[in-house]
């Protein structure tokens, strides 16, 4: 199994990554052997993850999440599938070509919800 995840760093920033061993990766982040970004922002706390069948799906989803705004990431973390689409919460892959369309629809949904 492969995972796309978001951790909250000690300075409250959010870091998104992917791995095939979630527990091992979080331990690596907290021991200073994870990403360069999290090395100086420890400890980190896992706040969100999705399961994917393939490495490519997990990497594509990581790319998509990294292009969300912080507010959009917070909505995803809170699990508000009504704004993001339930398929996002379940962890289905978003193809790169579909991302901009989905982002636009998500913004429109947020505007309607306000």
UniProtKB/TrEMBL annotation:
Superkingdom as given in the UniProt entry: Bacteria
SMART domains, alphabetized: GIYc
InterPro entries the UniProt entry points to: GIY-YIG_endonuc, GIY-YIG_endonuc_sf, UPF0213_domain
Domain called GIY-YIG: residue spans: 1-75
A Pfam family reported for this protein in Swiss-Prot or TrEMBL: GIY-YIG
Family per record: Belongs to the UPF0213 family.
PANTHER family according to UniProt: UPF0213 PROTEIN YHBQ (PTHR34477:SF1)
Protein name: GIY-YIG catalytic domain protein
Organism this protein belongs to: Dorea longicatena DSM 13814
